[in-house]
Amino acid sequence: MDYVSALVPPVVMAVAFTALIVTMVKSQGGANKSKEDAAVDAALAARAEAERPAPERETS
Length: 60
Hints:
mainly alpha
């Protein structure tokens, strides 16, 4: 009976991991793909803009 209690946690984790991967694959693409892509592009553009050095100010 010890072998059953030793095998249950890895089997449960394997099933949960498989379910996670299946869910991720199924959620790719679909009707909202363009909306998701636009959101990622906007986030990347905002990050690139934030990383640009600020222009130097003239002091008199």
